[in-house]
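Work Package 3 (structural annotation) set out to generate three-dimensional models for the target panel prioritized at the project kickoff. During this period the team completed the workflow that converts sequence records into discrete structure tokens, so that structures can be stored uniformly alongside our sequence database. As a representative example, we reproduce one entry of 129 residues exactly as it appears in the project archive.
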Amino acid sequence: MERAVTLIESWTPTAARVILGAVLAWFGYHELVVPLVWTGYVPIISSTSHLAEVLVLIHGWVLLLCAVALVVGIAPRVAAALAAVMLLEIVISLTVSGGLSDLVLRDIGVLGLSVSLIGLKNQRLLLRR
């Protein structure tokens, strides 16, 4: 039993990192493939504007790059910090525009996961120099 607990403890940060990467990859991919579906979430700017579409595409690329960095293990703490900043912006924007909802609460959970990964130093499957 002790060995199983040790194994779980040593792999949990890696599993959390890969899961967060998968979530970010899913959203990033969909923002790149169908950006017009996401332009309604861009605050202040009209959802039909070209600027909103460009901002969604940039957001999608940043999400995808963070996802790759997390999954592959390239600067995972930096990628988690960048993801946390982006998720905080999403949570604030969604809360201001529509109040608390199931989407906001889901994103708060993903934000919590990204914040928890910022402080983890000992992880497995990292690319190192």
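The chain has a mean pLDDT of 92.
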